[in-house]
Write a structure and sequence with these properties.
The protein is an all-alpha fold and about 220 residues long. The protein is built from 9 helices and no strands.
């Protein structure tokens, strides 16, 4: 209980909980909408999602996205009427998308470094075990290249949980702007699920600071 209180006392902790609630509502709303007799529940989930989203406006970390998102919030609560909502919504999505692309590029770079190190360590172990080169046919090499790549990827991410967590989080986050910009259309169920997974990853990072990715 003390840990939960400390977590919710942090601004980032509260934001992650609000975000998880927001995307859980989106996912549940998507699952319940096709079912008859659930209209009232769906409406309540929609209102809760909107309320939680409004409560998160002052906690968005990306500066340009924060500015665009705040302008949209000002428009939605009626503080300003001459704002082109669609224009600013697209601006917010575009800057969020670029920010996530940079984050994913960083993750891929870190993964490549870890895989390179893992391959180097594996080669050293194999060399120490046997000086005789293993005989492979061309077909064997083509078959085993993918297996070797996936094994290196698995071992690299298993050895570095913060990198895995950050990559999963950014991949799930990018689903929303991809849909908003029309690059890759999804449905609210997929976006809600992705947002929920990302929020859980964010909660873990806030609750356990050692899980935050550290750059070289």
């Amino acid at each position: 209980m003390d840990g939960f209180i400390r977590f919710t006392n942090q601004t980032q902790g509260r934001d992650r909980l609000f975000r998880a609630t927001q995307y859980t509502c989106m996912l549940l709303r998507y699952l319940l909408e096709p079912k008859a007799g659930k209209e009232k529940v769906v409406m309540k989930l929609k209102k809760l999602e909107s309320s939680v989203s409004t409560g998160r406006k002052s906690n968005v970390n990306r500066v340009i996205y924060f500015i665009c998102d705040t302008i949209l919030w000002v428009r939605s609560v009626g503080l300003a009427s001459g704002i082109n909502k669609e224009k600013w919504r697209m601006w917010a999505a575009r800057h969020y998308y670029y920010s996530l692309l940079l984050s994913l590029a960083r993750d891929l770079y870190e993964i490549s470094l870890q895989m390179e190190q893992a391959a180097h360590d594996r080669a050293k172990r194999e060399k120490s075990l046997s000086q005789e080169p293993l005989g492979y046919s061309v077909a064997d090499e083509e078959t085993e290249w993918l297996q070797s790549f996936l094994l290196l990827l698995f071992r690299s991410l298993k050895k570095h949980p913060p990198l895995l967590l950050d990559t999963v989080k950014n991949f799930c986050d990018i689903l929303n702007p991809l849909d908003q910009l029309g690059i890759y259309k999804s449905n609210p169920g997929i976006i809600g699920l992705g947002g929920l997974v990302s929020s859980i990853a964010g909660i873990i990072i806030v609750a356990y600071p050692q899980m935050k990715l550290k750059m070289h």
